[in-house]
Amino acid sequence: MALNRKVALITGGVKNQPRPSPPLRQQRTPSIKVRFYQGNLTSAGAVTRLFQDVLEDFEHIDIVMNTVGKVLKPITAITEEEYDTMFAVNSKTAFFVLKEAAVHVTDAPVEHFTRGVCKELQSRRVSVNNITPGPMDTPFFYPRESPEAVEFHKANGMGNRLTMVEDIAPIVRFLCTDGAWITDQTIFTNGGYTTR
């Protein structure tokens, strides 16, 4: 499956997204169109509007990549209100993005959502996977961590470093092309971070 003429909807803050996103940039094609949309995806209505806007602009959606996520601070310092915000961003958004993807894609909680949606969509030959990168070297990560915590996270990954966006891009591209037969999987792309 080539990425030519495919429409990919990628959710997440632009601070953590190169322009265009690596899976698209690595596709050697002269005609990549990138359009930015804004919205608060913790609202189910906003997620629906996002999909409607993309469909209006591009007529179809082939690939959905949800990169929305939020980590506020160490667990011992998180208040109930902050937890509610974090849960809304990390879980509620993932659920409603998957729900809309289940309707519009033509060809912990996130893992369970992935499994449930996978079973529902496999008869339509739509694959659903969850990529789990662990701590990533993005502007989103550093303000929330102490220098000691950053070094701890680096020490737990291969090569004494954090996951880079470029580490994930080849996996996303593979899953969207030759690896389309892979489904219902959580793929840990973190340099062994979770094995320590």
UniProtKB/TrEMBL annotation:
Pfam families associated with the record: adh_short_C2
Statement: the UniProt record of this protein carries the keyword Oxidoreductase: yes
Matching InterPro entries: NAD(P)-bd_dom_sf, SDR_fam
Protein's recorded name: Short-chain dehydrogenase
Family recorded in the similarity comment: Belongs to the short-chain dehydrogenases/reductases (SDR) family.
The keyword Oxidoreductase is assigned to this record: yes
One MF term in the entry's GO annotations: oxidoreductase activity, acting on CH-OH group of donors
SUPFAM superfamilies, A to Z: NAD(P)-binding Rossmann-fold domains (SSF51735)
Sorted UniProt keywords: Oxidoreductase
Organism of this sequence: Aspergillus coremiiformis
Organism classification: Eukaryota, Fungi, Dikarya, Ascomycota, Pezizomycotina
